[in-house]
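Weekly modeling sync, notes
Attendees: S.R. (lead), two postdocs, one rotation student

Agenda item 3: backlog of single-chain predictions. S.R. asked that every request posted to the team notebook include the full sequence so nobody has to chase files. The rotation student volunteered to paste the first one in as an example of the format we agreed on. Action items at the bottom.

Example entry:
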Amino acid sequence: MDFLAPVAIAVAVLVALLIYRRAVASRTTRQRNAKLVERQRAIQSAIDTLGLTLKSSTITIQEGENAIRIARDALYQLDVQGDLSELIADNEQFFEEWRASRVSA
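Predicted structure, as returned to the notebook:
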């Protein structure tokens, strides 16, 4: 019987440590997921804003250049992981096509 008390205490401490570790890991995962969602929303907002601006038939080429600069700056700031280079290039290409259509029109 004298042996069971320390074993029970050791098991209880071990279980408490495992629960604590899981809670910390879960909190860290939630925080990371929230940051990813926030980043994705910011990326989508930059693209949507650019698209809406360039969609207007009354926008000038200068206003379009300002809009692409703002979108480019936002995407570069969000590119901390280095995974947005294709998206940035696609936006640049889209803008060049938009500008060419405006100049020829």
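Discussion: group reviewed the output briefly. The helical segments are 4-55, 61-78, 85-104.
Action items: rotation student to repeat for the remaining queue; S.R. to check formatting next week.
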